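From the pipeline queue, job 12 of 40. The input is one protein chain; the requested action is below.

Action: predict structure.
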Amino acid sequence: MTAPTVSSPPPPAADPTALRALRQTVLVIAALCGLAVLLLLVQHLRSQADDPLKSPQLLALKQQLLAEPKNEALKQQIRLLDLDLRRSHVRDVAFNAFGAWFVLVGVVVLVFAAKGIARFRVVLPSPHASPDAAERVAVTALRARRVTVGVAAITGVAFLVLALPAKTRLPSSPAGVDKVLAKLRGEGEDAPPLPSPAEFAANWPRFLGPSGAAFVTNAAFPLAFNLASGEGVLWRTPVPAPGFNSPLIWSNRVFLSGGDATNRSVFAFDLTTGTQVWQRAVANVPGSPAKPPEVPDSTGFAASTMATDGRRVFAMFANGDLATFNLDGSPVWSKNLGVPKNQYGFATSLAIWQGRLLLQYDQGEPENNLSKLIAFDGATGRVIWQKPRPVGQSWATPVVYEVAGKPQIATLAGELVIAYSVADGNELWRAQMLSGEITPSPIFAGGLVVAISPSDQLFAIKPDGAGDVTKSHVVWKTDENVPDVTSPVSNGELVFAVTSSGTVTCFDLKDGKKLWEHECELEVSSSPAIAGDRVYVFGTKGGMAVLAAAREARELAKADLAEGVLASPAFARGVMVVRTVKTLFCVADKGGPVLEAKRP
């Protein structure tokens, strides 16, 4: 006998509430996985910029290290930057690993959730309906939502924890990088400030002195001194390398540069004894030409006078190399600006203003558009601004001064006197006053810019104009005994100019009236200088003349140094330092140099 067949009731359909909750869970997990993938992609693109092997800052420092393999400070900078980059890279790797695992777990959860949805869709046989099925589904859905929210919150917090420290501490802007590098070198906010105006004026930091007018007030050097016998000479020492640049004086150091097509160097001497303290070769400069340019012997490779901001010294050479050293001789930075196109060789000297290095880099012809005025950050070498100039090659050095509290830089070249703002390099005014090959440099004295158009005219411009001031701001001009090579000098009341044949002419600074002229019977190539009430003139064949800086002509002394002088003298701290073609010597006014107390 066959057992009766018991028919089962039809299976219930999948609960719509549970199915909807499961679908929502799947969507949330899928969204989180998509967000994780997006964050990983963004992190990957961002981390490319912080790759330790591709960092432009690190590569630049390593390139500089090739030129300065013994620079320990530079090595320390590289180590610190490399460490920072590697820490950032490690955080990036950890972030990527966490994200990858999160996506993997999310995909696994999605697979199981998808299977769950599929099971919901299958109508399973059931002998009878469960009375609490709806309640269990609601509880399960609630738990699923809570778990999803919890996982999302934990994931978000984890990503936030990883993302915040993963941001590199390296600044993105060049100025920010400069600050980091300056801090690593001990030049940050805690570094000693730049010299005060009084300290700057107490030294001889650039060509023609701190004011650019070759004038010091308190000096009374002996009129009788003899280089050959040593009478009246504090010390003398051989010049170690050829060069026509003038010496600098800062604190107890004398600086000058020298060299030829093969070797170029910067030298430091003790101001008290004349002993050479250090010598640094300028070699392996990034971008420096393998083959040096052809330069006339009359100019040489080291005609540009150096400059110092009181913490570093800067030197420029005819092959375009620009090098910077600390006062103790340790290298700071160097770069090549390109070989200047100048048929007579590069001779423009460097200028300085409150930590900025200023270079008038004129070259070629006006139509070549090669000339420019550049402001560098003295601590790092970064170009702060650079302005093209509508002129060709020149040999004049710019002068920096203040008008109504704002610094200007006046330049000569071609037919134009052009003044620029030191702050941003914008042109302030110009005057068409020049002709010929411009070698004499402008000066600033008595509130006027005084300049020379070689063998043509000496003139003065009031520097408070704007635009073309040729017809409005030229205070006076004269064509009497105008030099062709040397620069004018002034004590604030009188202007003195010396021709190549040795004629010294004195003019009134206010109106340009000629007061007197005097024949020194010297062949002169170097600019004169004023110390107290005396004008010093040096000849190319070894002669020297001292005249009174007064409204009446008086020759106070003459001497034969037996060695020609092509550089201008430097006066500071009670001494006069002169560079001859063979010797560097020092004359003191009252027994020796006056040095400030050493800083603790």
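Job complete. The chain has a mean pLDDT of 84.
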